[in-house]
């Protein structure tokens, strides 16, 4: 599916450029896109390095284990194939908490770390497991309690009440997260059915 | 407003302090452990490069060729007919593809329509309740070398769609329509 979407983006883009006469923009876009990707990755080095270091300290200090014990029972149902005291659980929970508080740059390293653990659980295959897809679904639905970036933009443009959208954002997030989990379940059971046939 | 500013200001430093103090009490060699964990970060960032370059180049070709605009323009009358304001459509479409693009568009909508307008509130809610699916997918799976993504993309895009629809419905219900 990704292969197909990837090719389609290119082919449609190039075809449009041919018709619209935007080939020059496309040429620029190729190199700008590549440059942007590398810039993002370089920027990620600082965040990944710092948070992964700190997470290691948290892990050794037993904080991740404490977090899984505290919230594990709720999240356990979302990730039924992750064993109860597995380190993956601690990372999943810290990823979710960081997202909720709008700490986007702390959430990414924890999410990656969780993926790494889940990959090990799945025998190191290069295929996404059930739990990996669930974790991804939750991340793309983006559970947010305090949308800090948006609040600061609103503040900049002189909003009378910059935080009035917190309530609507939490509600919308609740819907998209619930929806994501349900759709994730639906696809999972469909996969299972297909396998049996 | 104040407590949120404080919270976001205090949260990370307090978290760091908490982790370090607890670890020290538990007799963890904190600095050495930190460096040990941090080493992974560098490699991880580099391992994401190929995935992100591939994805971002495709997306920018699609966007800059005018194809994205064409599809957005095509959708506009259709969405307008079911009560979705045309101005918000580009944001809804670009959100899963580009984080910086969406953020720029949100700022732009807030600047033109005002933060407390219907569009301004809708853009704010939408920006806060959805995420850049393609980026999350590429970075998370790229970093650990997952090539077969299964249903992940479908689930992610469906979640975005629900977030967009939920934003429109909820903002209309809470703040009233245009």
Task: Provide a concise account of the structure shown.
The complex is a heterodimer of chains A (197) and B (178). Chain A has 197 residues and is mainly alpha-helical.
Structural class by sheet pairing and helices of chain A:
mainly alpha
- Beta-strand residue percentage of chain B: under 5%
Topology pattern of chain B, helix = H, strand = E? HHHHHHHH
Portion of residues in beta strands of chain A equals under 5%
Mean pLDDT of chain B: 88
Which oligomeric state applies?
Answer: heterodimer
Structure report:
The complex is a heterodimer of chains A (197) and B (178). Chain A has 197 residues and is mostly helical. Chain A is built from eight helices and no strands. Chain A has helices at residues 2-20, 23-60, 63-76, 87-100, 104-121, 130-141, 148-156, 165-196. The longest helix of chain A has 38 residues, at 23-60. Chain A is globular and about 60 Å long. The model of chain A has no long low-confidence stretch (mean pLDDT 89). With 178 residues, chain B is mainly alpha-helical. Helix content of chain B is 80%, strand content 0%. Chain B contains eight helices and no strands. Chain B starts with a helix and ends with a helix. The interface between A and B is large, with 105 and 97 residues.
């Amino acid at each position: 599916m990704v292969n197909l979407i990837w090719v389609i983006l290119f082919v449609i883009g190039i075809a449009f450029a041919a018709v619209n006469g935007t080939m020059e923009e496309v040429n620029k876009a190729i190199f700008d896109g590549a440059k942007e990707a590398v810039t993002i990755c370089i920027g990620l080095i600082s965040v990944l390095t710092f948070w992964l270091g700190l997470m290691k300290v948290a892990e050794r200090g037993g904080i991740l284990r404490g977090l899984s014990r505290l919230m594990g029972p709720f999240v356990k149902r979302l990730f039924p194939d992750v064993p109860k005291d597995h380190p993956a659980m601690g990372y999943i929970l810290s990823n979710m908490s960081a997202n909720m508080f709008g700490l986007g740059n702390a959430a990414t390293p924890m999410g990656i770390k969780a993926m790494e653990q889940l990959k090990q659980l799945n025998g190191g295959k290069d295929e996404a497991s059930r739990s990996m897809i669930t974790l991804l679904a939750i991340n793309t639905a983006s559970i947010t309690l305090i949308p800090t970036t948006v609040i600061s933009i609103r503040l900049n443009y002189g909003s009378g009440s910059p935080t009035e959208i917190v309530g609507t954002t939490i509600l919308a997030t609740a819907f998209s997260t619930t929806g994501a989990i349900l759709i994730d379940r639906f696809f999972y059971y469909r996969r299972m059915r297909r396998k049996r046939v | 407003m104040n407590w949120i500013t404080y919270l976001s200001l205090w949260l990370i430093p307090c978290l760091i302090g908490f982790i370090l103090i607890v670890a020290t009490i538990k007799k963890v060699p904190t600095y050495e452990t930190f460096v040990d964990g941090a080493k992974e970060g560098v490699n991880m960032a580099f391992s994401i490069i190929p995935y992100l370059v591939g994805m971002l180049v495709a997306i920018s070709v699609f966007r800059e060729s005018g194809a994205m605009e064409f599809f957005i323009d095509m959708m506009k009358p259709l969405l307008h007919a079911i009560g979705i304001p045309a101005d918000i459509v580009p944001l809804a479409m670009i959100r899963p593809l580009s984080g910086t693009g969406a953020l720029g568009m949100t700022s732009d909508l807030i600047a033109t329509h005002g933060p407390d307008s219907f569009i301004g509130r809708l853009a704010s809610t939408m920006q806060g309740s959805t995420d850049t699916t393609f980026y999350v997918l590429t970075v998370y799976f790229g970093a650990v070398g997952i090539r077969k993504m299964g249903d992940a993309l479908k689930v992610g895009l469906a979640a975005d769609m629900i977030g967009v629809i939920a934003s429109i419905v909820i903002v209309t219900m809470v703040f009233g329509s245009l």
